[in-house]
Design brief:
Elements lengths: L1 E6 L10 E6 L15 H29 L12 H5 L1 H4 L2 E2 L18 H15 L5 E2 L1
Parallel strand pairs: 3-4
Antiparallel strand pairs: 1-2
Keywords: ATP-binding, Cytoplasm, Cytoskeleton, Nucleotide-binding
Family: Belongs to the TRAFAC class myosin-kinesin ATPase superfamily. Kinesin family.
GO biological process, one term: microtubule-based movement
C-alpha cells in the first residue's frame, strides 16, 4: 500500500509543496505458496518480489555511493515503487528530503531469518548520510 499526502502552503506562493509518502512493504511473498495460487496471484507475487529486490538494490547502492568517491548508479528506474521514492536515493537533490524507516520484526524463533534480513536492510539506511542539496 502506498499513501501520498501533498501539503501546499496557502500563506506564501514561493514555498514548494511538500510530499509525504507512507509505504507499507508487508514483506516478500513466499514462492513455496505459489502452488495454491492462480496465475494472476503468481504474477502479483512476481511483481511484489521484483519491487522489493529493486528496493534492496537501491538501498545497497545508496549506502555504497555515500562512502565512495566515484559515481555509482542507483537503479531506482527499475520499479514503479523505487521510481516514486527516487528522492530518497539521490546523492544530490534539489530539495531536502527525510527518510524514516519503521522495520517490523517478529520475536518468534521461526521468523529469525526474516527478522535478520529486515534488520540488515534497515541498518543500511541508518548509516546512510543525507543527500546534499544542490
Amino acid at each position: 500500500m502506498i499513501a501520498r499526502v501533498t501539503v501546499v502552503s496557502k500563506q506564501t506562493q514561493w514555498a514548494k509543496p511538500g510530499e509525504l509518502f507512507v509505504v507499507d512493504l508487508a514483506g516478500s511473498e513466499n514462492t513455496a505458496d505459489s502452488a495454491t495460487h492462480d496465475k494472476e496471484r503468481n504474477n502479483e507475487t512476481k511483481f511484489i518480489n521484483t519491487s522489493l529486490m529493486t528496493l534492496k538494490d537501491c538501498i545497497r547502492a545508496r549506502a555504497l555511493a555515500s562512502t565512495s568517491s566515484k559515481h555509482l548508479h542507483i537503479p531506482y528506474r527499475r520499479s514503479p515503487l523505487t521510481l516514486l521514492l527516487r528522492d530518497c536515493f539521490e546523492i544530490a537533490v534539489r530539495r531536502p528530503t527525510k527518510t524514516v524507516v519503521v522495520a517490523c520484526v517478529s520475536p518468534l524463533l521461526r521468523d529469525v531469518r526474516h527478522t535478520i534480513n529486515t534488520l540488515r536492510y534497515a541498518s543500511l539506511l541508518a548509516i546512510t548520510p543525507p543527500a546534499r542539496v544542490i
